[in-house]
C-alpha cells in the first residue's frame, strides 16, 4: 500500500520549475475537468474513457481505491493540474505482480521532464508494492513514443490488431509493452527523457 503521508511532495523540473505531486482527492474534481479540457481532442479520442463526460471525471475524483489505482496529479504554482498519471494494480489473481502505468501531460508543460519524474515516482511506488512487471499499452497514433519507452527497458510483447475502437469510430492496433521493474528503475535513474506529444 502506498504511504500517503509522503504526499504532497515537491518535484523540480528543468529550469528549476517546481510542481507539487498529490494523490487525487474529491476536492480536485473541477481542476481535473479543466485539465482534461486542455488536452487536444485529437489526443482525447484515443483515451480509454470519454473524459468530456462529467460523470467520468466525477467517478475518477471520488471513487478512489488506492489498493487498485494510484492516481497522482502534478499541480503547478498557479494551483492548476498539469499532469495526471496512474498506476493500476490487482491485489489478487495470476497477474497480481503486474502494474499498468498510464499518463498525460498538458501541452504547455511538455518537454520539461515532467513525465520522466511522474513515471519515476510511479515506478518507486510499484517497487514498494512488490510489483515485478510494469505494462503500458500504446495505440497506433502513439507509436512515436515507442523508442523513448525502449530506452528505459520496455519491449513489445504483443500487437493486437484492430483491438480497440476509439471515440471517432476508428479501429486501432494495441501495442503491449512491458519491462521488469528493476531494470526499468535502474535505467530511469540514469536517463532524462521527454514524452513528446503524449507527455513531457
Structural class designation: alpha+beta
- Please give the domain count: 1
The CATH class assignment is Alpha Beta
- Please name the fourth-level CATH homologous superfamily: Gcn5-related N-acetyltransferase (GNAT)
Q: Overall mean pLDDT score? A: 86
Shape: globular
Question: How are the strands of the biggest sheet laid out side by side?
Answer: 1-2-3-4-5-6-8-7
Name the helicity range.
Answer: 25-40%
CATH topology type: Aminopeptidase
Order of helices and strands: EEHHHEEEHEHEEH
Distance between the termini: 27 Å
Number of strands: 8
Name the CATH architecture: 3-Layer(aba) Sandwich
SS summary, helix count: 6
Radius of gyration: 16 Å
Strand content: 25-35%
Q: What ranges have pLDDT less than 50 throughout 5 or more consecutive residues?
A: 192-199
Largest sheet: 8 strands, mixed
Q: What are the main properties of this structure?
A:
200 residues; 8-stranded mixed beta sheet; alpha+beta; disordered C terminus; 6 helices
List the helices and strands and how they pair.
Layout: E1 9-12, E2 18-23, H1 29-37, H2 41-44, H3 54-62, E3 69-75, E4 81-89, E5 98-105, H4 114-128, E6 133-139, H5 146-150, E7 155-165, E8 171-180, H6 181-190
Parallel strand pairs: 5-6
Antiparallel strand pairs: 1-2, 2-3, 3-4, 4-5, 6-8, 7-8
Helix pairs in contact: 4-6
Amino acid at each position: 500500500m502506498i504511504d500517503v503521508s509522503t504526499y504532497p511532495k515537491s518535484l523540480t523540473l528543468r529550469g528549476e520549475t517546481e510542481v507539487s505531486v498529490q494523490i487525487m482527492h474529491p476536492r480536485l474534481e473541477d481542476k481535473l475537468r479543466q485539465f482534461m479540457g486542455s488536452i487536444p481532442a485529437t489526443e482525447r479520442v484515443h483515451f480509454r474513457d470519454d473524459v468530456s463526460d462529467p460523470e467520468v471525471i466525477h467517478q475518477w475524483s471520488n471513487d478512489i481505491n488506492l489498493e487498485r489505482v494510484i492516481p497522482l496529479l502534478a499541480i503547478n504554482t498557479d494551483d492548476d493540474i498539469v499532469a495526471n498519471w496512474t498506476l493500476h494494480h490487482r491485489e489478487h489473481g495470476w497477474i497480481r505482480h503486474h502494474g499498468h502505468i498510464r499518463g498525460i501531460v498538458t501541452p504547455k508543460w511538455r518537454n520539461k521532464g515532467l513525465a520522466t519524474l511522474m513515471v519515476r515516482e510511479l515506478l518507486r511506488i510499484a517497487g514498494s508494492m512488490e510489483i515485478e512487471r510494469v505494462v503500458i499499452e500504446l495505440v497506433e497514433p502513439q507509436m512515436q513514443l515507442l523508442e523513448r519507452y525502449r530506452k528505459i527497458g520496455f519491449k513489445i510483447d504483443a500487437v493486437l490488431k484492430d483491438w480497440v475502437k476509439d471515440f471517432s469510430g476508428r479501429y486501432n492496433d494495441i501495442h503491449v509493452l512491458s519491462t521488469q521493474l528493476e531494470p526499468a528503475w535502474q535505467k530511469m535513474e540514469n536517463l532524462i527523457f521527454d514524452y513528446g506529444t503524449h507527455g513531457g
